């Protein structure tokens, strides 16, 4: 069975839009795309009067080397969000098919499914925010076409072991595509599972330059998957997804100097994460600090609303995650630069002191 047998038949049969850049490349005088012959006013980047490549060759090459995959196994787009949306639209028939998620988890999986009118099957994480593989597999029906697993998890920070990923992808063979979201994997002790792609055609991996590579504003993300899945998604992807300035920013960030700089910052985050977890746990009013393999800590408070307000009044914005299952008393705090983290600790310690004096 081909992994494409899981996809929508009408998408497999779709005649995709053929853009000017797809039909012809190279040449000295470009008169095939109705572009302006003049460069735009101001310093907005060379070549912005021309449409970009649908999949910029230089960026695809760099990312394929970074993630140790073949070019044909990689699709680059506007953040992980675009890849999630493309997967749902390609594999889920409206009103008939479903995705499976494990809350608490990243909200865009369910949003993309509901926009497509696909059902959302929920198998909650265990109380310690670990994945229950048996429960996930028991919940997979014929309607489930995509199983999303977020590791490290957002918003809890927990990880799914490589053994569990391998067990899932083997059990789902011929039944569903397993999509492993590794947005935070650069901060984790365990590495990527992208090396399993050649063994399992029903595995896909989401990666992003938004976190460890400091390019949240450039909106660059990747899907790593079987070449047939990549080719299928390109059929429904807009022809020019990546603005040239974003591509240029990504190439700079992924240069030799850029990679060394990013890895130095990752080391700082990992060190600060350990320091912050220990310091937060000592503060009065903090019930627990969840173990995290991401670039944030999720913290349980006696009064999360008061803690949020105290930080906000001091100009510090953290994420209120109390709406998520199992996190009704928690805030998610991104690990910032050491000086930023010191401010968080000072505000929360001051809050505790004020309560004690009262």
TrEMBL record:
<comment type="subunit">
    <text>Homodimer.</text>
</comment>
<comment type="similarity">
    <text>Belongs to the class-II pyridoxal-phosphate-dependent aminotransferase family. Histidinol-phosphate aminotransferase subfamily.</text>
</comment>
<feature type="modified residue" description="N6-(pyridoxal phosphate)lysine">
    <location>
        <position position="211"/>
    </location>
</feature>
<comment type="pathway">
    <text>Amino-acid biosynthesis; L-histidine biosynthesis; L-histidine from 5-phospho-alpha-D-ribose 1-diphosphate: step 7/9.</text>
</comment>
<dbReference type="InterPro" id="IPR015424">
    <property type="entry name" value="PyrdxlP-dep_Trfase"/>
</dbReference>
<feature type="domain" description="Aminotransferase class I/classII large">
    <location>
        <begin position="46"/>
        <end position="344"/>
    </location>
</feature>
<protein>
    <recommendedName>
        <fullName>Histidinol-phosphate aminotransferase</fullName>
        <ecNumber>2.6.1.9</ecNumber>
    </recommendedName>
</protein>
<dbReference type="InterPro" id="IPR015421">
    <property type="entry name" value="PyrdxlP-dep_Trfase_major"/>
</dbReference>
<dbReference type="InterPro" id="IPR005861">
    <property type="entry name" value="HisP_aminotrans"/>
</dbReference>
<keyword id="KW-0663">Pyridoxal phosphate</keyword>
<keyword id="KW-0028">Amino-acid biosynthesis</keyword>
<keyword id="KW-0032">Aminotransferase</keyword>
<keyword id="KW-0368">Histidine biosynthesis</keyword>
<dbReference type="InterPro" id="IPR004839">
    <property type="entry name" value="Aminotransferase_I/II_large"/>
</dbReference>
<dbReference type="Pfam" id="PF00155">
    <property type="entry name" value="Aminotran_1_2"/>
</dbReference>
<dbReference type="GO" id="GO:0004400">
    <property type="term" value="F:histidinol-phosphate transaminase activity"/>
</dbReference>
<dbReference type="InterPro" id="IPR015422">
    <property type="entry name" value="PyrdxlP-dep_Trfase_small"/>
</dbReference>
<keyword id="KW-0808">Transferase</keyword>
<dbReference type="InterPro" id="IPR001917">
    <property type="entry name" value="Aminotrans_II_pyridoxalP_BS"/>
</dbReference>
